[in-house]
Amino acid sequence: MAENQCQKCHTLKAACDEAFVRYPHSCSHSVWHVIKKYVPGQPYLTANSLVHNLTTSPQWQEVPIHELSRLASEGALVVGGAAESSHGHVIAVYPGQAKFDGGYYYKSREGKDILAGPHGIYPLAMSTSMGNWPGAKSKGDKTVADPWGLDKFKKVKFWKYIGD
Amino acid sequence: MRPSLYLITFLMHFVLLISSNSLAAGYEGFRELKEKDCVLLGEKDVQRLPTVWLKYKDFIKICQLKKSLASKAKVSIISIWTDDYLNAQATKMWEDFPLTVIVDDHFNKLGTLPEHFPTDFRTEPIIYYGKWKSGIPTEIRIDVYNPTVSGDYYYSPFIWNDKDKKYYTKDKESKSGKRPKP
Which CATH number is correct for A3-161, 3.90.1720.10, 3.90.320.10, 3.40.50.300, 1.10.287.1490? Predict the structure, then answer.
């Protein structure tokens, strides 16, 4: 995104870009890095704990998916995620115009290269991951839907930071 | 016959036994359904499906669930090969495909699977069937290969109800991780 298109969101974009480079293998650390730009005292939390914290904290407000692109482009911090019985996953919404998900290759069960086709148009994401799933590695080039499959994505929620 | 020929014959039988798939993924007595077990559904049979399937007629396959290669199947699975269909489309856009169904040999619907075999959106359901009774696999297990961040998962088994002549599962929600071994 050109700087002149991101006058309100350059702090968010810069934080996401830094987080992506600094913590390429840990979603919780990269999202923590972004949150700290808005909430300096934010303690580190694992993905599952962060999702629990976002759900219960009055400083965060759940927002619907259709508002995400606008909010991020206005510079608002929006974090999304879903807890899992093992490790959950968290992302930050990246500023910019929504786009189709998919468009990258991944390995099938038999090791065949499969092109991830699109399902729809979604807001952009900053996402990092310790795993190999290419949809979970995004510096604004993939969407908030890409880290998950279809059914799991239905359980993903998004929260906007509203402060005290 | 020379001893080396005995050895070769033994090894060939051993390989055939392994590939016969009598023990799938550690589920004793279960077979894993493979894509090679499936054939394109004939035009006449496609017409017996609900109209929503017709759009996908060139990509619908039927997979017989057999106890052994020689036995006759009483239960089959009918599914759309979503990957083949999407590869034939310019946009490759995922669609709201009708779910994979289980049918009897008269095309009566016996149940619906929660995902599209062999390829769902980013995931691949692995179908195991076993616990045979009168030529019917009375249990179908669906484990799902999921390369995305949430990882593999599985569903409660689909159990044959002999009274209703249908398959039921007690819980439609998927469960994260690998299916616990009994």
Answer: 3.90.1720.10
Which phi and psi (to 5°) does residue A94 adopt? -95, 140
- Mutation choice for A interface testing from B91, B148, B155 by most A CBs within 10 A: B148
Residues 6+ positions from A114 with CB-CB distance below 8 Å: A105, A106, A107, A108, B83
Per-residue pLDDT 10s for chain B (182 aa) are 555 655 555 555 444 444 444 444 569 999 999 999 999 999 999 999 999 999 999 999 999 999 988 889 999 999 999 999 999 999 999 999 999 999 999 999 999 999 999 999 999 999 999 999 999 999 999 999 999 999 999 999 999 999 999 999 999 889 999 999 87
The pTM of this model reads: 0.88
By C-alpha distance, the chain A residue nearest B114 is A151
Sign of the torsion angle spanned by Cα atoms A103, A106, A109, A113: positive
User: Is B92 an 8 Å CB contact of chain A?
Assistant: yes
CB distance from B90 to chain A under 8 Å?
Answer: no
Subunit contact B151:A84, Cβ cutoff 8 A: yes
